[in-house]
Design a protein that fits this description.
One of its GO terms (cellular component) is membrane. It holds the Pfam family CRAL_TRIO. InterPro entries: CRAL-TRIO_dom, CRAL-TRIO_dom_sf, CRAL/TRIO_N_dom_sf. It comes from Sipha flava. This protein has a domain at 83-265: 3-Layer(aba) Sandwich (Phosphatidylinositol Transfer Protein Sec14p). The protein has 14 helices and five strands. The chain has helices spanning 7-15, 21-36, 46-55, 60-76, 78-81, 89-97, 128-145, 164-167, 172-183, 200-210, 215-218, 250-263, 265-271, 290-293; strands spanning 98-102, 112-118, 152-157, 190-196, 221-224. The protein has a five-stranded mixed beta sheet. Helix 7 links the parallel strand 2 (112-118) and strand 3 (152-157). Helix 2 (21-36) crosses helix 3. It is globular, with a radius of gyration of 19 Å. Mean pLDDT is 88; it is low at 285-304.
């Protein structure tokens, strides 16, 4: 599904945030010591902690916050993080309705690209919770398989998004949840967000939504009139056929991801148990604080680097 990193790529990624082995061990010990005092949290693997440390530039206090949020949102949103079975009829229907896949190769500047496109114009085929569920499963799979990357690029192809009924799903509550889960509860750095093949209605809607985002995020949003403009940013061989590339059709890439999710079915079922238990949380209310998770309130806390 994805092309493994070369030694040269891995070296370049590590050199972007150099850290001695002694310093990494010290940071790992700090996070492990903190986790030992958090009875409400599961105990992640050493590999997982090291990846988070790197992704968050070894800022241990930020790492603690993200780990806590990462496991707490799973408890808070069972409709997204529960029933992670990619073989159900409901899941298969969403796979048929929405193309969602990573590009096989990293960008030249060593970012992973995640792509999205409606496969139908039927507004009823889009379910926000199922969209987030698949997205979270894709991201977790990639975070486990990619040894390291520098960040994510999102590409949204709006070819089939041309009715108000479709855009009604993308209300502010949904958008805030997407951004907060992606940026406050996951160790991810969003480098660019492309919207391609944009209708006039879509552009008007997106320009309105952009006003609610921090300037730093707005500066990373790129409107591409046609998909061929993506070739100005990324090599042709890493793009799907529909965007003038050589990496296969969107349907094929979408199906490859689905097959990988099915292979990992037992892994995802096990992941369902890796979540917070707020009844054991020490020093805070046993009721999950939505403002801490960032689902309520404004966008001031979002981090993009």
């Amino acid at each position: 599904m994805i092309v493994p990193l070369t030694d040269a790529q891995l070296k370049a990624i590590r050199n972007s945030c150099p850290r001695s082995q002694a310093e990494i061990d010290q940071d790992l010990a700090i996070v492990r010591h903190w986790l030992d005092k958090q009875p409400h949290l599961p105990k992640p693997s050493e590999k997982f902690i090291k990846q988070i440390l790197f992704s968050l530039k070894y800022r241990t206090e930020k790492v603690k916050l993200v780990i806590d949020n990462f496991y707490t949102v799973k408890e808070t949103f069972p409709q997204i993080y529960g029933d992670l079975d990619p073989t159900t009829d409901v899941f298969r229907k969403h796979v048929e309705s929405v193309y969602m896949f990573p590009l096989p190769k990293l960008t030249p500047d060593l970012n992973r690209v995640l792509c999205y496109r409606m496969a139908t114009t039927d507004a009823k085929a889009f379910c926000p919770d199922n969209q987030l569920k698949r997205n979270e499963m894709m991201w977790n799979l990639l975070f486990d398989e990619d040894e390291l990357t520098l960040g994510n690029v999102w590409i949204f192809d709006l070819t089939n998004m041309d009715t108000m009924a479709q855009w009604a799903h993308f209300n502010m509550n949904f958008m805030k949840k997407v951004l907060k889960i992606s940026l406050d509860a996951k160790p991810v750095r969003i480098k660019k967000v492309h919207f391609v093949n944009i209708s006039q209605m879509a552009e008007t809607t997106l320009n309105f939504i952009k006003n609610f985002f921090p300037q730093k995020f707005r500066d990373r949003i790129i409107f591409n009139a046609v998909s061929e403009n993506l070739q100005d940013y990324y090599p042709i061989d890493m793009l799907p056929y529909e965007w003038g590339g050589k990496a296969g059709t969107m349907a094929e890439l979408n199906q490859r991801l689905h097959e990988e999710l099915i292979k990992r079915k037992n892994w995802f079922v096990e992941m369902e148990r890796m979540k917070a238990n707020s009844s054991k949380r020490i020093g805070q209310s046993k009721t999950v604080d939505q403002s801490i998770l960032g689902v309520e309130g404004n966008f001031k806390r979002l981090n993009f680097d």
